[in-house]
Write a structure and sequence with these properties.
The chain is mainly alpha-helical. The chain is built from 4 helices and 4 strands, in the order βαααββαβ.
Length: 124
């Protein structure tokens, strides 16, 4: 299954919330396994993002990244930063997703938005 870095970033917190629910063991196991794989990809993404921040951010006299009054990083080459971070977000990762049958959720209450988050994990 191919998942972009952007999708991983958008979904990771919500996946964690879903795992807090009482779910059937097969569903819970699949989610836990998939989250572990997704978090491994997220570590790589975060390292590459840090490289970009170090490359494009303004730094103070101590070499620390500068931020504005709202805590937002100040970039010296904003256009190049935006181009490169957009490219990093669009990279697709080939992740071996552990799937479960939709019938495993029978009798368990999940919202439509939760089902949309895990749609690639469900097989019919």
């Amino acid at each position: 299954m191919k998942l972009s870095n952007e999708r991983i970033l958008n979904d990771v917190n919500k996946l964690g919330e879903i795992t807090q629910k009482q779910l059937p063991i097969k569903v819970s196991y699949a989610l836990a396994k998939n989250i572990a794989k997704i978090e491994a990809e997220l570590k790589i993404y975060n390292k590459e993002r840090e490289k970009l921040i170090n490359q494009y951010a303004e730094k103070d006299e101590k070499g620390q990244v500068k931020a504005d009054e709202r805590g937002q990083i100040i970039f010296k080459e904003k256009e190049r930063w935006e181009k490169d971070i957009k490219e990093l977000l669009s990279i697709e990762n080939d992740i071996d997703i552990h799937k479960f049958n939709i019938n495993e959720l029978n009798g368990y209450n999940m919202s439509a938005s939760e089902l949309m988050i895990i749609d690639y994990m469900i097989e019919e």
